[in-house]
Amino acid sequence: MTPTPTRTSDATRERLLAAAATVVRRAGPRALTLDAVAHEAGVSKGGLLYHFPSKRALVRGLVADWMDRFEAEVDAAAEPEGTGGWTRAYVHGSDMTRMAPDERDAEFSLLSVLIDAPEELDFVRERYTAWQ
Q1: What are phi and psi of 113, to 5 degrees?
Q2: Which residue has the higher pLDDT, 96 or 38?
Q3: Which of 4, 18, 38, 97 is deepest in the core (most CB within 10 A)?
Q4: Largest CA distance in the chain
């Protein structure tokens, strides 16, 4: 039986994703190892494996979190349905020139992870297709 996630579990998962993004931003996608992320997050490797049982699961989590945050920002900025507001919010949200340099660095770092994990591009394509 799979345990029900708790707030502490959710917070740990978020901390692990933030640590993974930090590792990639600081040292590039090839530095993204389970050991490096566990160390950065200050948890044991077993604690990391509880949330992400493999590097692939960690990459999927990182990409999914990135896309979920983008979609939430677009949804929050969208005007009422039927006005084209979601499309305008999507275009605005996709404009990297409006981002602060550290936000752009984070975006490019996450994109670089996909270079080393091309199998995740199918997941990204599915999300982009749904948005289109």
Answers
A1: -60, -35
A2: 38
A3: 38
A4: 49
The single-letter code of the amino acid at 110 is: L
Q: How far apart are CA 60 and CA 114, in angstroms?
A: 10
Residue 81 burial (C-beta neighbours within 10 Å; 0-12, 13-18, 19+):
exposed
Residue range 84-109, pLDDT digits in tens: 777 777 777 776 667 666 666 667 67
| pTM, rounded to two decimals | 0.74
- Which residues, 6+ apart, have CB-to-CB distance to 78 below 8 Å? 85, 86, 88, 89
Q: Which residue has the tokens 């550290």?
A: 102
The angle subtended at Cα 115 by Cα 41 and Cα 43, nearest 5°, is 10
Q: At what angle do helices 7-27 and 34-41 cross, to 10 degrees?
A: 120
Q: Nearest-5° angle of CA 16, CA 78, CA 17?
A: 5
Q: Which residue has the tokens 């640590």?
A: 19
